[in-house]
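chain below, 274 aa
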Amino acid sequence: MRTIAVMNQKGGVGKTTSSVNIAAGLAKRGKRVLLIDLDPQAHASLHLGVEEAGSADTIYQVFAGAKKLKEIRQLTTTNLWLAAADLDLAATELELVDAQGREHVLRRAIAAHCEEEPFDYIIMDCPPSLGVLTINALTAATEVFIPLQPHFLALQGLSKLFSTTALVRRRLNRELRVSGVLLCLYETGTRLAADVTDDLLHFLQSSDEDAPWAGAQVFNSRIRRNIKLAEAPSFGQSIFDYAASSAGSHDYGMLVDEVIAAEATGEQPLAEAA
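prediction:
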């Protein structure tokens, strides 16, 4: 089983879009997938057509200790289950502030669930912050995917993400590693995108071999700007169901193939520069 946290502290970089469409693409290839929405804005839940409802159980009940993960998940389409979020999840930061072992709540919930019923993939859509919810995701994960817009300021913010993964690996989760960087909102043919990609590859290739991001893959698949990706959430569908012939569907389909190929080979080589 691969447990993947999709994280970036900057909003608007394609984090939720990537979480949903990677999960949906894996499910369409026959993998059993659980998508956990850890953002109080619940955008991943909305993207799959699950609207916030006061009576519905969400991942908040798991953090509160009232429910098990298996009790709150719901099947959204073949092979794809969702642990939905709602605004109550924002209270978790305060409610767990003094709780013993607060960083391990999600890890224990996942372990208990998978003892009874394992998944091939667990994808966690993290909030755009580095608080308790994101730390829980990193403590539960074995891998991190970082969606990144190819701009220089975004590249500068990457150092903070790497520092966070190093801290969590040192103190909470020795198995954690950054396994992939995904370039989103990519503008093909621009010099800026190519330069940022080159800088990123150079940084990763020259990293200390003991760093959590050592050997991280810059996915060859680039997620281009595509209006269909922006439209799909309003219809409660993944890009594969909403616009199967679109550029967005093609790009995420290629990305899913790379994710599965890495599973098959057990290797995560660095991509070549575009």
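The domain at 2-265 is CATH 3.40.50.300 (Rossmann fold). The radius of gyration is 18 Å.
thats it, cya
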